Amino acid sequence: MTHAQTETESGPRKSRRAPSKRDGKPPRRRRVWRWIALGLAVVLLGAGGTVWWMYESLNSNLSDVDIDKALGDDRPEKQPTSGQNLLVLGSDSRSGANAALNTGNVSGARSDTALVVHIPEGRTRATAVSIPRDTLVTRPACTTASGKELPAAKRVMFNSVYSLGGPSCVVKTVESISGIRMDHYMEIDFAGFKDLVDALGGVTIKLDEAIKDSKTGLDLTAGTHHLDGTDSLRLVRTRYGYGDGSDLGRIGLQQKFMLAVLAEVKRQDVLGSPTKLYDIASSATKALTTDSALGSLTKLAKYGGSLKAIDPGNMETIMLPVQYDTQDPNRVVAAQPQAGRLWKALREDTTIPESAKKSPATGGTKS
Predict the structure, then answer these.
(1) pLDDT of residue 355
(2) In sequence order, what are the residues at sequence separation of 6 or more whose Cβ sits closer than 8 angstroms to the Cβ of residue 203?
């Protein structure tokens, strides 16, 4: 029997050659890649679940108010440009977590800090106008958060509008005195402010003069200081231990600190660090109340992203020009024509005249 016959009768011998590329990968290697693919899928699904949980957690922290519904059509016209106007309030409720922050024993809540932030078309710079809380204003008739009608009133302190009427009444009052429609509203409470600064790891600020405030317990020398959340809160609330003890003097501190916070956020590249971004976002969303148009994490993030080109160095801070009230020297009123010129420049998105930035009242009477 020949060799060829043997192969025919018993069947062809199995080849010992290495498989060609056409044969595909060996079964073992295919199994390895399947497990790798499965592992990646599990990781991605797990990450997706974590991202979803993070989103839901942050989103549920937010509170919002429907400003448009509350105010209706009785408002200034919207700007024809893509510029934006944002009302930012720092509320000082003295209950709950805020009660432990040496904020004083005062019932109710007030708007301790009020900023009209104007962002011109192009969104590369901004102007923040502080409204002193002791400013006497005419409050227009408005609907409170509970649905009660609040009648118009003259010569009321600006910070009382919040405690009596809530966010919608504050927005309507600001729009009434400025003639500028507020596109958005943001409010941050004291306890949330403290946690936000702590999430940043503190904020560095340079003081031109020493601060010694027996009411808040803040004691700082002139010079550079790195402050944690508690001391930062004491700083922005300092009044009697700085300058002549007036509210007007404190506004300068608040503006300086706001720029320091913005600079710290930019320095740390918060958006480039997911872990730090989540910590800061968690603190911020717990403290924030916004208008309904910003009332979700996606809306808030989109709006924040549209402002990322604004550099703290391009942000101008101005105090609304005020003068002492002739009937009560412990109160101030808007100084004219300066205040009118300031609001007009913001309404028309034009350069603010230097004359519109000068305030006749630069200090106040201690009380």
Answers:
(1) 93
(2) 197, 226, 227, 232, 257, 260, 261, 264
The answer to whether the CB of 241 falls within 8 A of the CB of 218 is: yes
Whether 366 shows a pLDDT value over 70: the answer reads no
317-351 burial, b if ≥16 CB within 10 A, otherwise e?
bbbbbbebbeeeeebbbbbeebbebbbbbbbebee
Would you state the pLDDT for residue 41? 54
**CB neighbourhood size of 308 (10 A):** 11
Kind of pairing, strands 142-143 and 136-139? unpaired
In the structure, what pLDDT confidence band is assigned to residue 274 with cuts at 50, 70 and 90?
Answer: low
- What is the residue whose two structure tokens read 């002492």? 324
- Look at strands 136-139 and 322-324 and give their pairing: unpaired
Type of residue found at 166: G
Average pLDDT value for the chain: 79
Question: What is the DSSP-derived secondary structure letter of residue 271?
Answer: G
Q: Do 130 and 113 meet the contact criterion of CB atoms below 8 Å apart?
A: yes
